[in-house]
Amino acid sequence: MKITAGQVFRWAVLEGKTHTDITGSLRGLFTTPTPTHRAALTEPAQIGELLRSFDTFTGQLSTCCALKLAPLVFVRPGELRKTEWREFDLDSAIWRIPGERMKMKAPHIVPLSTQAVAVLRELFPLTSRGLYVFPSVRTASRPMSENTINAARRRLGYGKDEMTGHGFRSMPASRLNEMGWNADAIEQQLAHAESNKVRAAHTHAAQFLEERTRMMQAWADYLDGIRARSNVVTLWRSA
């Protein structure tokens, strides 16, 4: 922002519209934000141990289901906690998140694996009468709090220095890229800010959705394998 302002003031000085460039006095006023470290597990053995720990969770079913769904959908923590039942079509295995709930303010589609649908169907009888899939433990009129999820992970032995809510996005991003899946499909599924390459590919959105659907199911199957201590340690892209 300072660079842009400086260019404007220098132009104004040359044009005689002002006598000085005041942006020099702004030096030190704007600082570069310090990147936030969001810990994530990315090694198969670590991921498998984390997934197995979910089966030992003895808290609320809704909290347990939120933990189990997080690694299957790649969304941001708030997008998961505040999700509403009306966003889901379980028969078609599709989750449509409206733009106002997304960080990038654009509607987002999450293809649901059979495992993700199973988690939601398990929870459906408990919370479907209300608005939120994951309601607060105090009142169904509000979504589950971030503290509830964080506390659940701590109870399972995972502090913020080892695994965070955003770590469930870093986890597939790291592994799927290494395994050869289409980088554009991964970026679209993560709903990141669009790169020029992804933006240009929007004309092929249906193709990416089909690939993302295959990718999400393959990822869920891969997680099942490492959760069961299977020999499946690689998830190559389907042709």
Description:
The chain is mainly alpha-helical and 239 residues long. It has helices at 2-14, 44-54, 61-73, 77-81, 114-127, 146-155, 167-178, 183-190, 196-200, 205-227; strands at residues 88-89, 94-97, 108-111. The protein has a single domain (44-227), classed as Intergrase catalytic core (hpI Integrase, Chain A, Orthogonal Bundle). Mean pLDDT is 83; it is low at 197-206. Helix content is 48%, strand content 4%.
Give a brief description.
This protein is mainly alpha-helical. It has helices spanning 2-14, 44-54, 61-73, 77-81, 114-127, 146-155, 167-178, 183-190, 196-200, 205-227; strands at residues 88-89, 94-97, 108-111. It has one domain: hpI Integrase, Chain A (Orthogonal Bundle), CATH 1.10.443.10.
Give descriptors for this structure.
single chain; 10 helices; hpI Integrase, Chain A; 48% helix; globular; mainly alpha; 3-stranded antiparallel β-sheet
Give the averaged pLDDT, no decimals.
83
Largest sheet: 3 strands, antiparallel
| CATH architecture descriptor name | Orthogonal Bundle
Strand content: under 5%
Any idea what the shape is? globular
* SS-derived structural category: mainly alpha
Give the CATH level 1 class.
Mainly Alpha
Uncertain segments: 197-206
In N-to-C order, the SSE pattern is HHHHEEEHHHHHH
CATH topology value: hpI Integrase, Chain A
- Counting H and I runs of at least 4 residues, what is the number of helices? 10
How many domains is the backbone divided into?
Answer: 1
N→C terminal distance:
45 Å
The CATH homologous superfamily is named: Intergrase catalytic core
Task: Name the helicity range.
Answer: 40-55%
Q: Report the oligomer.
A: single chain
Question: Any idea what the radius of gyration is?
Answer: 22 Å
Give the tally of β-strands.
Answer: 3
Strand order in the largest sheet: 1-2-3
